[in-house]
Amino acid sequence: MRRVSVFGATGSIGESTFDLLTRQGGADTYRIVALTAGRNVRRLAEQARVLRPEIAVIADEALLPDLREALTGTGIATAAGDAAVAEAADRPAEWAMSGIVGAAGLAPGFRALAHGGTLALANKESLVTAGPLLMEEAARHSARILPVDSEHSAVFQALAGEDMDAVERITITASGGAFRDWPLEDLARASVAEASTHPNWNMGQRITIDSASMFNKAMEVIETREFFGIDPDRIEVLVHPESMLHALVSFRDGGMIGHLGAPDMRHAIGYALNWPDRAHLPVARLDLAAIGRLTFSAPDPARYPALRLAREVMAAGGLAGSAFNAAKEAALDAFIADRIGFTAMSGVVEEVLDRLSGQGGLGKPATSLDMVYDMDRSARRIAGEVIGETDRI
Ligand code: NDP
After folding, report:
1. CB distance 97 to ligand 1 below 6 Å
2. Which of 24, 34, 97, 109 could link 5 by a cystine bridge, Cβ 3.0 to 4.6 Å?
3. pLDDT of residue 392
């Protein structure tokens, strides 16, 4: 039986993974090693009763008694705390889903690579903050990282059997998010509720807001660079409101291979779960004749300043990705807490990068995870200062 762990089991990616594991036989097909969550004890316990993992881990330590009580009599081990989540990754598993949101997902994914199996990587923050370290760790243990972000899964699939040397350009698409058609002058007044609704995808709140601001796409551009090792100037973003063509690879002979599919993460997750086979998956089939047409446009730099910031981060290199992600997470927290307006988020991130750049060290290569975490802490501290200086718009 294949040994499988799911980090971030109660989230949007985690629930889709749970759905697929269950449909593919659950505990009768897989030996579930670890299921982890941040705070949602009730759902974690429900999932654990179905999939019967060796251990269920909750990140919030105060919730350990609740988790223990919910799993009484099941024989499933329990643990709590950030360290326990990362330690769960030390339990050998051949396939692990990295589905925690934010920089908190880096450590468990990194440690899961030591088993030399497959890391299904949804947590894009891992590649943005520590791409080279993660790829080196995978190579050191002959582990495989399979992308789960729909665009990167699409690129991976388009590249099957192809030579990277023949690739001219990688294009990833973006829906344009909740405010694609809003007048620019209204963006500053956008509410958290309005930003938390995605036109096509059903995702966690943080990535949904990041889609509206295009910070999500900015992260994905960096992820593309780290995963496929392609120069930043050969990565393109196209606004594609229908979210059906996820990515395109352009080759030197003028051909382009694109990947189409319904906007349902169970495709990319199922692809990573069953790779190199293709299993029957419960995703809607596209009826292109009924859809009629697909549309594309270049992103408006004034509407989506995050894309420019991603280019600056890639140009700086080194620890800039960690600073970018941490500043973005802090700005997002402040927006969700109604401390800053929607458009102020990119201003906060830019100011943090400027201040860190002035101090030097932003582009220094990360040679250890500690360096990544140090930069993360510095960027969050500076973001706190900048947010404190920012008037609520
Ligand atoms: P969600 O917010 O829906 O879920 C996040 C998961 O991580 C939950 O299980 C949550 O637990 C857990 N979690 C949150 N904070 C912590 C923490 N500090 N320590 C440990 N666990 C924690 O996020 P998504 O599923 O939307 O996204 C997960 C990742 O996948 C992100 O990196 C995102 O960018 C990426 N991704 C998501 C896509 C999507 O369709 N949702 C598409 C492509 C990529 P709890 O439920 O208890 O809070």
Report:
1. no
2. 34
3. 57
Among candidate residues 384, 222, 235, 381, the one with its CA nearest the CA of residue 316: 222
Domain with 384, as residue range(s), is 317-388
Contacts of 187 (CB under 8 A, 6+ apart): 179, 303, 342, 343
Q: How far apart are CA 15 and CA 4, in angstroms?
A: 15
Q: Which among 183, 174, 185 has a CA at the least distance from the CA of 211?
A: 174
C-alpha span between 106 and 134 (Å, rounded): 9
pLDDT in the model for residue 390: 81
* Interval between CA 207 and ligand 1 midpoint (Å): 9
Which residues fall within 8 angstroms of residue 264, CB to CB, at 6 or more apart?
283, 284
For residue 13, the CA-to-ligand 1 centroid distance in Å is 7
pLDDT digits (tens, 9 = 90+) for 117-168: 999 999 999 999 999 999 999 999 999 999 999 999 999 999 999 999 999 9
Q: Is 154 in the pocket of ligand 1 (CB under 6 A)?
A: no
pLDDT > 90? residue 201:
no
Average pLDDT for 98-127: 98
According to DSSP, the β-strands at 30-37 and 2-7 are: parallel
User: pLDDT at residue 302 above 60?
Assistant: yes
Ligand 1 and 147: CB distance under 6 A? no
Residue 345 sits in a domain whose CATH number is 1.10.1740.10
For the CA of 10, the nearest atom of ligand 1? 9
Domains in the chain: how many in total? Answer: 3
- Residue 393: pLDDT over 70: no
pTM comes to: 0.97
**Is 273 found in the same domain as 356?**
no
Residue whose CA is at the smallest distance from ligand 1 atom 10: 38
Mean pLDDT of 52-63: 98
CA of 102 to the centre of ligand 1 (A): 7
